[in-house]
Design goal:
The complex is a heterodimer of chains A (518) and B (221). With 518 residues, chain A is α+β, with helices and mostly antiparallel strands. Chain A has 15 helices and 19 strands. Chain A has helices at residues 3-10, 49-53, 62-68, 79-92, 121-135, 148-157, 169-174, 185-193, 199-203, 207-213, 224-232, 265-279, 311-319, 357-372, 388-391, and strands at residues 32-38, 41-47, 73-76, 100-103, 107-110, 142-144, 161-163, 248-258, 281-292, 297-308, 331-343, 377-382, 392-396, 426-438, 445-450, 453-466, 480-487, 492-498, 510-516. In chain A, strands 14-15-16-17-18-19 form a six-stranded antiparallel barrel. Chain A has a four-stranded antiparallel sheet with strand order 8-11-9-10, covered by helices on one side. In chain A, helix 6 crosses helix 11 (224-232), helix 12 (265-279) packs across helix 13 and helix 13 (311-319) packs parallel to helix 14 (357-372). Chain B has a domain at 12-146: P-loop containing nucleotide triphosphate hydrolases (Rossmann fold). Chain B contains five helices and ten strands; from the N terminus they run E-H-E-H-E-H-E-H-E-H-E-E-E-E-E. Chain B has helices at 23-31, 47-53, 58-65, 79-91, 111-124; strands spanning 12-17, 41-45, 55-56, 71-75, 97-101, 128-133, 144-151, 167-175, 181-188, 193-197. In chain B, helix 4 packs parallel to helix 5 (111-124). Chain B is globular. Classes of the chains: A alpha+beta (518), B alpha/beta (221). At the A-B interface, helix 14, strand 12, strand 14, strand 16 and strand 17 of A face helix 1, helix 2, strand 3, helix 3 and strand 4 of B. Strand 14 (426-438) of chain A pairs antiparallel with strand 3 (55-56) of chain B.
Chain lengths: 518, 221
């Protein structure tokens, strides 16, 4: 299993509520798989070492494996996230040579021509690669070969670190199985039925015969003959390396160290914003690096709620950080960089000279977040759910929050429809346990004690029964009976009883106070 | 026409109440001018008020203010941070209102702080509603100061055992616009209007001796 898949499965999950079961906690000895949606239910996409030891293979269905191995932990795989992580790793691999490309879903191909001597030869480069990728938690299979096809074959079917020289290439390839030629399943099946197991068997067959047998089904790019020629270098197979993303960075090197970097910042920001404006981009995250004379580097980062290339606004986000800046002996280099950019079309100013309302709101979000922290400024994040605290949570407005909800009229639909039911104005962060006197087993509450103060209920409305979300919650989750009650001094509360007596999901039901009505 | 003293008053209102019910919150929401100003509501809470009184719940709020008004919530840690966030919000004229919630009576929220808030609110025209759960009323420049507590709801026509339309006992104990008074307040959701009824001055018959109320000589309304 690749590292980004494991990191993904280890990423923090939202804290569970007291009535939710804790997420399955799996150690290294628990069989653990990632699954993708298949035609007949989820299909295993990747397996952990413990699962592989039990004989679980990719491509089988999760339900079949679970019948054999009940304590299997299966999580959905994130294929798009894997591809993005591989793309980043491909760019990072350019530390060894300037020409790299991702190869399939789990491979990287590097064109190391003319670069290996920088690492003390090919063996030294492979050692460095396996050490650095090992530090990242990656298990690697590395190979150096004269052609792309041969390198792929040796990496997948050869030793862990193999270097193949041009004169020995033909003999080494002949010993590998035919699957090392990057063929599709149907061709492999045909070859197996013909009794051709090794690449050497294919080499022994006359070219004309191979050409006549394969390639009539429209797959001329993946015939054994063509793949063999590519692996041996008779056909060219260039590596197409993607251009690195454009960086927006402005650096100012100073002749004399300065103690206060603020006067030079507006000019730098101006140049950065002109750069971005030329390409129609705006910054979502901006970073300022101050290089001290004594070698230290101080970095500040600021995020914006929507793409911006307004130098004055970006400068204001940084401004507050200078209050606590330790200048030391001074700075000799200042760099500003837009670390995350987004497309931003030019906007026209309004005829009356005013700002757009949503621009003003986004500016406010940026200012508040830069001082109070990105977690402190929140937007509602509505969800399709009937569990009250799940239906509406608060997400940071900067990171993926629904900032579009703040636009005028932005709340139409999307689960935020007019309340069909009576809902409280305020909802407690977590429901608080209360002591309730009620008619057993399913009667309405009569009196309760909340935060050490007794209340006598005069009127009540309910119950409104909310079932747990069986498709998500654990099987032991209990239903809730919600009551809107009015106590003697007039305050109105939202109580619920979790479960009913004798539902077989725990002891006597507990009561909670969840919200305050108007 | 020169501005009268009435229009020059800052749009700052304080509502005191207990954190154990939502009466003050509801009265503030019922008075929000939802049609006059567009844009989101900035709702600033310090940590204690969120812990004691919970978070605003948009579905319930939409039931009072009648339309879906987006809310931008600021979770400040201390009262000083909450005051700073309110000041920043009052600078932004794109907001429809700023609701600030500060629990208790912190030292930073004094007369000077309320004066700063009022000046900013006057400059940008954004109204400020200060919710003061579990607070002692100190000095403040707010022209209107309410003390709100929950009251029994009206009888429910459909179900005699259920609560009906919510009502609150609102005590306008300091005001520079009108004479102070105590009202039983109900909110009409259809027209988004407040109904202010003077409560009965005499108790119910047969509940024993009552303190004789002083004769009300002031004309109210």
């Amino acid at each position: 299993m690749a590292r980004w898949e494991r990191v993904r499965s280890r990423s923090p999950r939202p804290t569970p509520a007291p009535w939710d079961d804790a997420p399955p906690d799996h150690g290294p000895e628990t069989p653990f798989v990632l699954a993708v949606d298949g035609q007949h239910g989820p299909v295993i996409h990747a397996v952990s070492t413990a699962a592989a030891d039990l004989g679980i293979t990719t491509g089988t269905r999760v339900v079949d494996v679970r019948a054999l191995c009940p304590d299997l932990v299966a999580l959905p795989a994130d294929l798009a996230g894997d591809a993005a992580a591989l793309g980043r790793l491909t760019l990072w691999a350019r530390r060894w040579c300037p020409w790299s490309a991702s190869d399939g879903a789990d491979g990287i191909v590097l064109d190391t021509t003319g670069s290996s001597h920088l690492w003390g030869g090919e063996a030294g480069m492979l050692t460095d690669m396996s050490a650095r990728l090992g530090d990242l938690g990656q298990e690697t299979r590395l190979a150096v070969a004269p052609t792309h096809g041969a390198a792929w074959a040796l990496a997948h079917y050869g030793g862990t670190q193999e270097i193949s020289h041009p004169d020995a290439l033909r003999a080494r390839l002949a010993a590998l199985p035919v699957a090392a030629l990057r063929l599709d399943g149907a061709t492999l099946l045909t070859l197996r039925r013909l009794g051709l197991k090794r690449i050497g068997d294919l080499m022994a067959i006359p070219r004309a015969t191979l050409n006549r047998r394969f390639g009539r089904d429209g797959k001329t790019l993946m015939t054994p003959l063509r793949r063999l020629d590519q692996a041996l270098g008779h056909l060219p197979e260039p590596v197409v390396s993607a251009a690195p993303p454009r960086r927006y960075r402005q650096v100012q090197r100073l002749a004399e160290p300065i103690l206060d970097p603020q006067p030079s910042l507006p000019g730098l920001m101006q140049m950065l914003c002109q750069d971005m404006a030329r390409d129609g981009q705006g910054a979502r995250a901006i970073r300022l690096d101050l290089y001290h004379v004594d070698g230290r580097v101080t970095g500040f980062e600021a995020l914006t709620a929507r793409a911006s290339r307004d130098p004055a606004h970006l400068y204001r986000l940084m401004e507050r950080r200078f209050e606590t800046l330790d200048a030391g002996f001074g700075f000799d280099t200042i760099a500003v960089e837009a670390t995350r950019i987004e497309h931003q079309s030019s906007a026209q100013a309004r005829l009356d000279g005013g700002d757009d309302a949503d621009v003003a709101t986004a500016t406010l979000i940026d200012r508040l977040s830069s001082r109070l922290g990105p977690q402190a400024v929140q937007c509602p994040a509505p969800r399709e759910s009937h569990i009250p605290e799940r239906a509406e949570t608060w997400k940071p407005a900067l990171r993926g929050g629904r900032a579009d909800l703040l636009a005028p009229g932005g709340l139409g639909g999307g689960g935020m429809v007019a309340p069909a039911r009576d809902r409280p104005v305020r909802l407690l962060q977590t429901p608080e346990r209360i002591e309730v006197l009620y008619a057993v087993p399913e009667g309405p509450p009569v009196r309760f004690k909340w935060r050490r103060k007794p209340y006598l209920i005069r009127r009540h409305q309910g119950p409104e029964r909310l079932s747990p979300e069986w498709w998500r919650a654990a099987a032991s989750a209990r239903l809730r009976d919600y009551y809107k009650v009015e106590v003697t001094d007039g305050a109105r509360y939202w109580l619920f009883r979790e479960g009913i007596a004798g539902d077989g999901r725990g002891a006597d039901p507990d009561w909670f106070l969840h919200g305050l009505f108007a | 026409m020169p501005p009268t003293s009435e229009t020059r008053l800052p749009a700052v209102t304080e509502a005191f109440g207990t954190a154990r019910d939502a009466a003050a919150t509801a009265l503030v929401l019922a008075q929000l001018d939802t049609l006059g100003r567009s844009g989101p509501i900035l709702w600033v809470q310090d940590r204690l008020s969120a812990q004691e009184g919970g978070l605003p719940y948009t579905r319930g709020i939409a039931g009072i203010i009648g339309e879906d008004k987006p809310i931008l919530r600021v979770a400040a840690r201390t009262a000083a941070e909450a005051l700073w966030a309110m000041e920043e919000g009052l600078e932004c004229a794109a907001l429809s209102a700023v609701i600030g919630e500060v629990w208790g009576t912190p030292r930073v929220l004094d007369f000077t702080a309320s004066k700063r808030l009022a000046l900013r609110s006057q400059r940008s025209g954004v109204p400020l509603w200060l919710l003061r759960p579990d607070a002692e009323p100190g000095l403040s420049v707010a022209p209107d100061r309410w003390h709100v507590s929950a009251a029994l709801s009206t009888p429910n026509m459909l179900d005699s055992r259920a609560p009906g339309t919510p009502r609150w006992m609102a005590d306008l104990f300091r005001s520079r616009r009108r004479p102070p008074g105590i009202w039983m307040v109900a909110h009409d959701r259809a027209t988004h209007r407040l109904h202010l009824d003077a409560p009965l001055r005499d108790g119910a018959v047969g509940t024993g001796p009552q303190p004789i109320p002083a004769p009300d000589t002031r004309a109210v309304g």
